[in-house]
């Protein structure tokens, strides 16, 4: 498998200057739409002196106000909707149990299908493919996002949703799908279940996302499922999966669908950071109509990069998500992203994929790392040393028997728990 063809060459393959023209035109139209709707974002635009689309430009994007998740919560449920022609609503359960709801027009669903078709096409999926789609169907955008994109591409989609793993194993044996779409943690779970039942995996490629995962985990998935594992990124507020996706030829980074979703990376003060420097991703939905967002701060930290030189794909790229701004743990003054702990865990073959980081906030801040292993000999000390080397702090490592860490069959894997008082979130922390 080498280079995959472009699904929409006029969008994915145009020269950078041509795309910039399209983006600027769309930005101005977006600002017009927001001002006409006269909602929260219109008020903020007027505060910075914007009276019409002609007052904004890509060069001066930094002058325009941000939108944050807190803004969406403050105007829950639908305060950012600007078009009445809504055909469906998606969203995420969100942190702290506070949901975020996103209304889509038929036009938005069309954009979604098209960016998802591009994402799948870039991964080598074709109209002859059978896609085993184990992302959850429902309010969560994973299931239906892949569904829309797969159908747009002309592929066949098996809408399995998450869970009921035995049935999934049975269908893999019977139908021999060539494409797997699900969260990376479920891919591992499914891979283990296939191995356990003696069923040979039939996948050629997998498109995994919705939660952070590392290159080490990619290797683990590859060895369990014998497929090419690619990363897909997105968030409900912007559209769902398809905001950015790795392709076979994108050299480990994700092509951003930047003709629809303009991307910036900024520091904590909201100032742009140069390519290659980690920053918080900020997206502007250039073409959305139901709930368009201007400069939405995602909380996700990644680096940006230009396209691969001489590639037919001319979109800017983002790295894998390095962590979330609010998931960054500050332990005794040291910044730690859970993905760094994940990398250390993966480097040791004795450790199972199921683990939990516990941020102990009861007295002196401590970080516990609970892992499962069938070969516990010396492991606690080895992991403590490796973590100290990587993070610069001493973590309390607990090596527990298989089954200790709670599993997630559906939805996103929970890798981080907070321990503020009372009983520990998992057994064995003493
Ligand atoms: O997770 C959309 C999605 C579905 C993406 C399926 C990919 C595949 P939300 O539920 O709104 O939407 O959660 C969005 O999940 O802000 C990131 O923090 C995280 N996330 C999504 N994709 C990745 C990824 C979907 N590939 C939030 N790597 C985002 C790391 C990811 N984190």
From TrEMBL:
Pathway: Aromatic compound metabolism; phenylacetate degradation. One of its GO terms (biological process) is phenylacetate catabolic process. Gene3D superfamilies: 3.30.300.30, N-terminal domain of ligase-like. Residues 333-416 form the AMP-dependent ligase C-terminal domain. Residues 85-283 form the AMP-dependent synthetase/ligase domain. Monomer. Belongs to the phenylacetyl-CoA ligase family. This is Phenylacetate-coenzyme A ligase. It comes from Saccharothrix tamanrassetensis.
């Amino acid at each position: 498998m080498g280079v995959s063809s472009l699904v929409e060459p006029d969008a994915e393959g145009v020269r950078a200057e041509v795309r910039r023209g399209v983006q600027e035109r769309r930005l101005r139209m977006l600002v017009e739409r927001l001002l006409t709707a006269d909602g929260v974002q219109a008020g903020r635009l007027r505060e910075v002196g914007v009276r019409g689309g002609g007052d904004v430009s890509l060069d001066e994007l930094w002058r325009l106000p941000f939108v944050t998740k807190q803004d969406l919560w403050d105007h829950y449920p639908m305060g950012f909707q600007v078009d009445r022609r809504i055909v469906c609503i998606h969203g995420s359960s969100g942190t702290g149990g506070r949901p975020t709801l996103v209304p889509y027009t038929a036009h938005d669903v069309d954009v979604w299908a098209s960016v998802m078709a591009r994402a799948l096409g870039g991964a080598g999926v074709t109209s002859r493919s059978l896609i085993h789609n184990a992302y959850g169907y429902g309010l969560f955008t994973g299931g239906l996002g892949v569904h829309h994109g797969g159908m747009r591409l002309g592929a066949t989609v098996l809408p399995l949703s998450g869970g009921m793993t035995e049935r999934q194993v049975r269908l893999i044996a019977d139908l021999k799908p060539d494409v797997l779409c699900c969260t990376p943690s479920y891919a591992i779970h499914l891979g283990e279940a296939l191995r356990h039942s003696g069923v040979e995996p039939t996948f050629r490629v997998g498109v995994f996302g919705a939660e952070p995962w590392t290159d080490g985990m990619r290797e683990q998935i590859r060895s369990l499922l014998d497929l090419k594992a690619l990363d897909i990124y997105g968030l409900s507020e912007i559209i769902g999966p398809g905001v950015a996706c790795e392709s076979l030829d994108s050299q480990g980074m994700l092509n951003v669908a930047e003709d629809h979703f303009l991307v910036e990376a900024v520091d904590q003060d909201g100032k742009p950071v140069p390519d290659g420097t980690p920053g918080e991703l900020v997206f502007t939905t250039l073409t959305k109509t139901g709930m368009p967002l201007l400069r939405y701060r995602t909380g996700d930290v990644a680096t940006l990069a230009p396209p691969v030189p001489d590639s037919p794909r001319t979109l800017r790229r983002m790295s894998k998500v390095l962590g979330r701004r609010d998931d960054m743990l500050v332990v005794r003054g040291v910044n730690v992203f859970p993905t760094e702990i994940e990398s250390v865990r993966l480097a040791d073959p004795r450790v199972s994929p199921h683990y939990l980081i516990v941020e102990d906030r009861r007295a002196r801040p401590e970080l516990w790392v609970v892992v499962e292993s069938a070969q516990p000999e010396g492991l606690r000390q080895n992991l403590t040393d490796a973590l100290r080397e990587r993070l610069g702090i001493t973590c309390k490592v607990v090596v527990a028997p298989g089954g200790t860490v709670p599993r997630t069959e559906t939805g996103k894997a929970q890798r981080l728990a907070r321990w503020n008082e009372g009983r520990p979130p998992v057994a064995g922390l003493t």
